Amino acid sequence: MNLAALTLHEAREKLRKREFSAQELIEAVFRRISETEEKLHCYITLSHDTALKEAKQADELLKTDTNPHSLLGIPIAVKDNFLTRGIQTTCASKFLENFIPPYDCTTVKKLRASGAIITGKTNLDEFAMGSSAENSAFFATHNPWDTDRVPGGSSGGSAAALAADQCIVALGTDTGGSIRQPAAFCGVVGLKPTYGRVSRYGIIAFASSMDQVGPMTKDVRDSALMLEAIASYDPADSTSANRPVPQYSASLTGDVKGLRIGIPKEYFVSGIQPAVEQAVHKAVRQLEKNGAAIKEISLPHTDYAVAVYYIVATAEASSNLARYDGMRYGHRARAKDLTETYMLSRAEGFGPEVKRRIMLGTYALSAGYYDAYYLKAQRVRTLIKKDFDEAFKSCDAIIAPTAPTTAFKIGEKTQDPLQMYLSDIYTISVNLAGLPAISLPCGFDPEGLPIGMQIIGKHFDESTILAIAYAYEQSTGWHKRKPNL
Amino acid sequence: MKYETVIGLEVHAQLLTQSKIFCGCSTKFGQAPNHNTCPICTGFPGVLPVLNKKVVEFAIRAGLATHCEIARWSRLARKNYFYPDLPKGYQISQYELPICTNGYIDIAFNGVAKRIRLTRIHMEEDAGKNIHDLRSDASLVDLNRAGVPLLEIVSEPDIRSAEEAGNYLRTLRAMLQYLDICDGNMEEGSFRCDANVSVRPEGTTALGTKVELKNLNSFKGVEKAIEFEIRRQIETLSDGGSLVQETRLWDPDREETRSMRTKEFAHDYRYFPDPDLLPVAIDEKWIDEIRASLPELPGARKVRLISQYDIPAYDAELLTNRKDVADYFESTLIIHRNPKVIANWITGDLFRLLKDRKLDEKLYITDWPVQADNLAAMVALIDQGKISGKIAKTVFEAMADSGSSPQKIVAEKGLEQVSDPESIEKAIDQVLIAHPKQVADYQAGNQKIFGFLVGQIMKATQGKVNPQKANEILKRKLTEGNEISATSGRKLD
Amino acid sequence: MKLTREEVQRVAMLARLRLTPEDEERLTEQLDNILQYVGKLNQLDTSGIEPFTHAVDIANPMREDAITNEPNADAILANAPAQENHFFQVPKIIE
Q1: pLDDT higher for B303 or A379?
Q2: Would the pLDDT of A120 be above 80?
Q3: Reported confidence tier of residue B493, pLDDT bands at 50, 70, 90
Q4: For the segment B435-463, what is each residue's pLDDT rounded down to a tens digit?
């Protein structure tokens, strides 16, 4: 049995049945990492020794553990923008190279308390700004399905590690599609919960009104189980929702009869790769066969979403990244005075994409431009949200492609930032409105590259989208395919 | 050309909460550097703010006491700029929707009541402290103060002179102390003031060029700085020059305002609503609760003192300007109830003593030079006829020097008043015998001589004789003419 | 309205980013491009539309005024580029 290829629910069950030990599991995962890392470069930091120690402890605890929900002994890869106490957290930036946080983010704290074992910190686009993991200051991550291609971003490292079985589950963050798009590119399941469902405390902030933590998993059941483990109210996060957490896995019945699914007509216009369009349409027909009712809906302001995002997200980011000034932690440049210290530390510490977004965001907030850019964008954002509110009056979920194309080649889109931004077109609106959405595999293109389908739900209705995703997944089985590494 | 001064004041008041505004660090002053810090108030990656409810409560208290409109929804905003004492690279403050607006404070200036309007009161976090003078090649940053809650209180430009400004500040500070939300310590920085000063030709309404004054570290400093600035502005304009809208620093040593180094780029704070915090909701119920629990404010206390103790309005005003004085006054009355006389002692001798010892600049006096119970006991001695008012002055000074009780001092120094008629008669007889000419003058019709004779009696008895009794007996003896006491043995012709 | 180099310099100063002349040129072009694109928002009439505030429609939670933090200056200073006697040491600040 290839232990590293197991899902969370499989591994948990087998660990309890003592089919193998937690140590054996972690060793299998690290073996897999050493076999494939050179080709993929998923991890910035590996926690081999600590993980082994924790696995030993897990085996002890497993002898008496009766909690069916615990994650004891489960190897998990964590995106390197989650603060992990004592473990270097770089955000894939030179600015934070060698930064050792003095505290754990809430989500990691919860998972550690549940017995999960961190395999390491995965690569991302620097400060989560990007759609390909190419903006990492250290190295690009390669897509396990075709190592000449990007894994997607910004949670590219987590997606690739997961697809390559370098972990059992992974954590990512999603601000404009950064969980869903790499999940689509890597053929795995990526869930962005409703804004406020999972604590943001301890996540390096990019766009505060959009950032969300989410699980990346090998199948939908794992996604539901992970969401159960990490969703909660956090008093340390003022934007955290104080609502009960349903047992998401209970909605995985496979039954979608009577559910109404909306297909936004604006999402199927030019620019979409034919294979992607076909795969998503086929998936919709499958769900229809399963008993769901399909109808066309309209999200009229779709075309403005990217513009809104690149004003509001960059504005928030420009302010969130002001703390990286070299005074209290991080890179401090050698300079002749205070002002120059600020300017050089930040110029040397930040990569070009980060600088570009800081500049854009600063401009959008600056005197004379605030009304025309920031305020205007926030008003259009309200319109975008209203589009969804309206649509959800007549449907329970919305289905769309996750990305207009499958994984592109490394270096293909790095020349024109705007082209890169436009590839976020299907995922961005969801973050603007704060809705939950899941991406799961729905086929492969002629090159053998995974295609992702996105299911968008109402606020706090992760149960419905998980249910639909599960039903589709079980009817098709795309998740069982693995890359040829 | 006569000019009118237009002044607006911006006060930052540190709030007396246990913990900081957005994290659970202590606000205690005077700790070791960076001892009162955590990842949140030092701007670490990934941290988020959570608002301290007490800060909102204090802001509402201040708003109610100053007759403001309390916003049912208000928002926190980010003010973005780079400085080493600002860990996040932005300050969380309020911009478009502050918690309180459109209030006023009534001040009494030169016996006339004047209303100074308040534009707004809002909540914000304090920055840390930069220390420049320990090294020549580097600065040191202590973030203990970063995140301590502040209220920013902005007045309309209704103030018309430096003195009025001082009056406004003292009144505002007293109010914040009464509300128990700020200790008003300008020297320690828990009560800070910036002034906006402009001048305009008398009778006009357009505002002149506004100059912001900073580094005003004491009430005297505020008044002097404003006076200097008014003179400077008027001189400049009178000489045909023009004024620049700028920020000037007050130099207390050279007693002048100086232009700050002109920045290459003006501050563009890029205010926007803080996405990590949601709109602050305040409901009627909470406002009512706070209103009901407001401590007695200076104005109300003054009214009560007048009606409860029948003291003059002028005295009541002086006694309630400062909470510590009002508390002192009322605590004396627990020991001995003579409000009018005690009020006089406080507003006269005690105030003078405080000023001499420079204690009046302290914000809440706990180390009184004369303890309240001692003052009360002293007045009790006067009322009991044990000492005269005059001797009391001596006792008062002695109490200020030694801290002893008045009873002890009177006993030690033998200051007890002589009140028995026999001793007094004896003393008077001796004086009358010694000054026959004056006695004859008086009896001839020269009333003024009475005072001289009283003075002699005082002298002869080291001031200890009971003045009223002495007066009585002296008058009787003089008008009854030839009668002298049987014991003195001399007959007057 | 085309983005000028002067504006890029002004924004770079506000953001405390040192740009080389090549950076300035490249950024001026790229940012101008992006700003032209986002300018499409002006096609929309948004009069009467409230700016978006939060996805969750609730009031700000508040915490009780209590000291909950265990002081640990060493942990806070552990990543400091320079420190002295528990102060953060920074380049000289000239007021």
Answers
A1: A379
A2: yes
A3: very low
A4: 888 888 888 888 888 888 888 888 888 88
Distance CA B464, CA B207 (A): 64
pLDDT of residue B263: 53
CA angle at residue A183 from A361 to A383, to 5 degrees? 45
**How many of the other CB atoms lie within 10 Å of CB of A96?**
26
For the ranges B58-62, B95-99, B258-262, B451-455, the lowest mean pLDDT is seen at: B258-262
Residue C10: which H helix or E strand, with range?
A: helix C5-14
Q: State how far the Cα of A388 lies from the Cα of A390, in Å rounded to an integer.
A: 5
Residue B486 in this model has a pLDDT that exceeds 50: no
Three-class secondary structure assignment of chain C: CCCCHHHHHHHHHHCCCCCCHHHHHHHHHHHHHHHHHHHHHHHCCCCCCCCCCCCCCCCCCEECCCCCCCCCHHHHHCCCCCEECCEEEEECCCC
Residues B165, B166, B169, B170: is their CA dihedral positive or negative? negative
Q: How far apart are CA A290 and CA A256, in angstroms?
A: 6
**pLDDT beyond 80 at C57:** no
Residues of chain C with C-beta less than 8 angstroms from the C-beta of B139 = 89-93
Q: How far apart are CA A185 and CA A192, in angstroms?
A: 16
Beta-bridge mates of residue A418: none
HEC-encoded secondary structure of A159-210: HHHHHCCCCCEEEEEECCCCCHHHHHHHCCEEEECCCCCECCCCECCCCCCC
C-alpha A53, offset from chain centre: 28
- Give the C-alpha separation, A113 to A125, whole Å: 28
What digits encode the pLDDT tens for the residues A191-248?
Answer: 999 999 999 999 999 999 999 999 999 999 999 999 999 999 999 999 999 999 999 9
C-alpha–C-alpha distance, residues A34 and A37, integer Å = 6
Complete DSSP assignment for B193-216: EEEEEEEEETT--S----EEEEEE
* Whether A50 contacts chain C with CB within 8 A: no
Judging contacts by C-beta atoms under 8 Å, the chain B residues touching residue C95 are 132, 260
Amino acid found at A219: D
* Chain-chain contact of A378 with C38 (C-beta, under 8 angstroms): no
Pick the residue with more confidence: B44 or B170?
Answer: B44
CA B55 to chain A, closest CA, distance in angstroms equals 16
pLDDT at B298 over 50: yes
Task: Say if residues B94 and B76 touch (Cβ distance below 8 Å).
Answer: yes
DSSP character string of B408-447: HHHHHHT-PPB--HHHHHHHHHHHHHH-HHHHHHHHTT-T
List the 185-244 stretch of A: residues with Cβ below 8 A of C: 194-196, 209, 235, 238-239, 241-242
Mutate which of A325, A336, A340, A379 to disrupt the B interface (most B C-beta within 10 Å)?
A325
Do residues A121 and A128 make contact, with C-beta atoms less than 8 angstroms apart? no
**Angstrom distance (rounded) from CA A217 to CA A9:** 11
Which residues are within 8 A (CB) of B429 and not within 5 positions of it... i.e. 6 or more apart? B477, B484, B485, B487, B488
| Amino acid sitting at position B60 | I
The encoded tokens of residue C33 equal 């491009």
Residue B484 has pLDDT above 60, yes or no: no
Report the percentage of chain A scoring pLDDT > 70: 100
3-state secondary structure of B229: helix
The answer to whether the Cα torsion of C87, C90, C94, C95 is positive or negative is negative
Asked whether the predicted pLDDT for residue B274 surpasses 60, the reply is yes
Identify the DSSP state of A303.
G
